[in-house]
């Protein structure tokens, strides 16, 4: 197998360079002379995550598709800590990304099964208050492209990043209580009635009837026999108010060159 570098990272003070190679080795190099100092052995699959500690120049984190997370002392070429991401009943989960906190006391990782793993010092009790499953109700709503090839939300015909803040739901689409809804940026000061999405029932393609947040439905609410969506109406009202504010700002701002570029507006 021809060796290939899959990832590269400098340490905190730039004295060392660490490379991940597709033969599952990590190599530590002197950044000034190019001399190979250490081969770090431990991974059993390719590594695409290398993160340096924010202030300790000795520490480097690596994680890979084998589910292994290592903390290395790259000056000595030794393992400091090791974690294997085993998921009960599903085997191991490949680790896709990791980041240190600014104070270097914690780091967080995400895996191929949608889990967020948080490591660090201290008590984990504050994290126990958060639901195990948190998704935005718009996560799996379909997208379309307009004539300029811009991505739009199919329901609102709006660029996704300009849509009102979504609701937090569990893996089955059931909304979380209002105290969790206020964790979503933009919903911190909303009244309680604006934090309770309406539940509805929708038939899937195979005829099964499932319960979900009404805002996830993409069917035409004008079809006969369908109740209008309170949540969708709320989203449309918020979007209309936002569009009106943006329109007022544009009218008061000096006109610039019209080159046809930029984020598309709702039709």
Automatic annotation (TrEMBL):
The lineage of its organism: Eukaryota, Metazoa, Chordata, Craniata, Vertebrata. Gene3D superfamilies: YVTN repeat-like/Quinoprotein amine dehydrogenase. Keywords: Repeat, WD repeat. This is BRWD1 protein. Residues 237-267 are annotated as: Disordered. Residues 249-261 have a biased composition (Polar residues). The keyword Disulfide bond does not apply. InterPro entries: Bromo_WD_repeat, WD40/YVTN_repeat-like_dom_sf, WD40_repeat_CS, WD40_repeat_dom_sf, WD40_rpt. WD repeats lie at residues 1-39, 40-82. PROSITE patterns: WD_REPEATS_1, WD_REPEATS_2, WD_REPEATS_REGION. It holds the Pfam family WD40.
């Amino acid at each position: 197998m021809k060796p290939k570098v899959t990832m590269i990272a400098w340490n905190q003070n730039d004295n060392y360079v660490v490379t991940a190679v597709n033969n599952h080795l990590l190599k530590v190099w002197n950044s000034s002379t190019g001399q190979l100092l250490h081969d770090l052995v431990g991974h059993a699959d390719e590594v695409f995550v290398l993160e340096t500690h924010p202030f300790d120049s000795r520490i480097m984190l690596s994680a890979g598709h084998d589910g292994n997370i290592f903390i290395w002392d790259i000056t000595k070429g030794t393992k400091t800590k090791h974690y294997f991401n085993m998921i009960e009943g599903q085997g191991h989960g490949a680790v896709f990304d990791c980041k240190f906190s600014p104070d270097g006391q914690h780091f967080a990782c995400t895996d191929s099964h949608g889990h967020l793993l948080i490591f660090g010092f201290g008590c984990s009790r504050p994290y126990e208050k958060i639901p195990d499953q948190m998704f935005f109700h718009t996560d799996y709503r379909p997208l379309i492209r307009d004539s300029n090839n811009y991505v739009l939300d199919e329901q609102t015909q709006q660029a996704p990043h300009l849509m009102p803040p979504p609701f937090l739901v569990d893996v089955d689409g059931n909304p979380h209580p209002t105290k969790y809804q206020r964790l979503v940026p933009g919903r911190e000061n909303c009244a309680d009635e604006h934090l309770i999405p309406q539940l509805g029932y929708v038939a899937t393609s195979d005829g099964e009837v499932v319960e979900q947040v009404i805002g996830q439905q993409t069917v035409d609410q004008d079809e006969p026999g369908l109740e209008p969506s309170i949540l969708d109406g709320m989203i449309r009202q918020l979007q209309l108010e936002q569009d009106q504010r943006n329109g007022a700002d544009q009218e008061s701002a000096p006109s610039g060159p019209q080159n046809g570029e930029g984020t598309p507006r709702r039709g």
